[in-house]
Amino acid sequence: MRTFLRVVMWLVVVLVAAGAAIYFTGNTITVVALIGRPHHGWDMKYKAPAPDYADAKNWAALPSRPGLTALVPKGTAAAAVDAPVDVFFIHPTGYLNGGDWNSPMDPNTTTEENTRWMMANQASVYNGCCAIYAPRYRETSIYRYFDTSDVAGKARDLAYSDVDRAFTYFLEHYSKGRPFIIASHSQGTEHGFRLLRERIDGTPLAKRLVAAYLIGFQITDKDAASLKSVHVCASADDTGCFVHWATWGEGGKPTFLTKDKLVCVNPLSWQRDGGMADKSLNVGAEPIEGDFTPNFLGSDAPKGTVFGPLAAPLPHWTWAECRDGVLTVADQAGGPFARMDMGGKNYHGMDYALFAMNLRENAKARVAAALAHTP
Fold first, then answer.
1. How distant, in Å, are the alpha carbons of 44, 81, 100, 110, 365 from that of 246?
2. pLDDT of 189-201, one tens digit each?
3. Which terminus of the chain has fewer CB atoms gathered within 10 Å of its CB, N or C?
4. DSSP letter for each residue of 26-42
């Protein structure tokens, strides 16, 4: 029974993180959510102290100690050295436990291992162009997405407050006037778009923004239209812009919490609402390295997960097409990415992997374009 419940929750976790509509009453998922969620309200005594970003331990990646963000796929050029552009990467939800509404930021946990998974499989795609900065933060628990009280908003705002402070520290002590990229996934994209809207859009920082890769959430066309100066990227070398997509398999039936159409930039053509792009344009999907561990009802004790070298990319792996705001791709059943299907052909866990080499090459192209126009 416990194994079944874990599987059910694993199928839900990224559905929720991706913004998929969850309308469940009186079923197993509701029961698990009620059992596993924190059984206290908003109480700061459960919170870790606000991270001090002057302390390197509060960064999952820094150029001075890149760790897993230095990994490159087999056969790919080594990570850039002395890169002229920075990436501020905001990782997605790795805290799947119900101890509190926000991560306790304990380095000796499964949550930390999940963050390491994100550094290896997501943040590393930007090491061909840029120096990578990835703050640890008091991210919200996955159970926040099941809560309708004011606790959910408070948990979100606490997590964002860390991201905001980390960005300030990054600007003042690391970036120091250099061009930068904002990159993220899932919960990280929720915070990333808020950062874009509140700290960058319509300010002098917008001139330093190469691009924002805000992937795997539910940024809508209305959200994009609300921005003053930052726009949706219109081409492969457009700058001062952002991209977004949410991936589903052919035949899936995506539903979202929002009724508004999502922003979809096709990562094979880099066109907004891009039509069918043949798999020949897919430079390479990247096999997943290591395990992302769902521990919804268990302890947050580490599992000893080891992350090794990245495998060679898989060229021409899938086509892609924006359909009514959703990035639709070939069915991945039975292939090397099948374990990341979150149910119903929700490929949220593959948002990066299926287009890893296209992301890697595009980040380099946008950096080149931005530097060409920088005095």
1. 34, 31, 28, 26, 22
2. 999 999 999 999 9
3. C
4. SSHHHHHHHHHS-SS-S
